[in-house]
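REQUEST FORM: STRUCTURE PREDICTION
Request ID: SP-0412
Submitted by: Lab K.M.
Chain count: 1
Length (residues): 277
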Amino acid sequence: MTGESETRAPSGAHQTAAGGDPTAGGDPAAAPAGGLAVRGLSGGYAPGRDALRDVSFAAGPGQIVGVLGPNGGGKTTLFRALLGELPIRRGELKLPGRPAYVPQTERARLDFPVSALDVALMGAYGRTPWYRRLDRADRRAARAALGRVGLEDRAGERFGELSGGQRQRVLIARALLQDAPMLLLDEPLSGVDGVSAERIEALFAELRAERRTLLVATHDVRQAAAWDQVLCLHRRQIAYGPPAAVLGPETLGETYGAELIVLEGGERAVGVGHHAH
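STATUS: Completed
RESULT:
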């Protein structure tokens, strides 16, 4: 796993988070060694129209951060900023290296005649020069990644014919092949079967032990409560910190507004975008 640090200078005027102690929100100068720090992040897709603003937080190696927010609240915008793909961005990022991104399986094309192994192998393309073909070592690594998500025996099956949960695990295997110090996962537990959910959650524990940093977008407050930190977004940063300090009624109400649904006698809350597995 690469330990290379990457710092991206502001692409516009530097901003700090509104209110509060900037070091508590993630001052890059006080970032955990080998971790992620974001300060004053704002930006969007058109001039003068921020899709996300005033985001400041830090996360260390081995931490899992749940990213909560309604549909359109800025979770994908945050991920695009961390990937260097947000067209207009202001603020400062300190990254432990290039993140690996895991999209929702619903956004994956299912009509391409590719196998699960072919999809996992795509994770090797970024580190392979254009003039060199993928070799046997890459294929072994891809099979090992499929093994980590419990799908080595499905390597030859067509990706589009796998179940939704299996496809999600293949996309995670593709990210594992990148050997990145940080993974960005877009609702990886939404709509997956129970077996896949258990496998993914077990893998999270393994990656935490490997000192990887995980940012996991989710609508499920119960899931986020089990992780190290929670970042609440609603086109701006609402709160960041340990679940016990963040996941209160006032913060959740400000984060989700009318989209918040409380279930099971008030002990579980989800956003309307959540799909139970």
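NOTES: DSSP finds nine helices and twelve strands in the chain.
Reviewed by: T.R.
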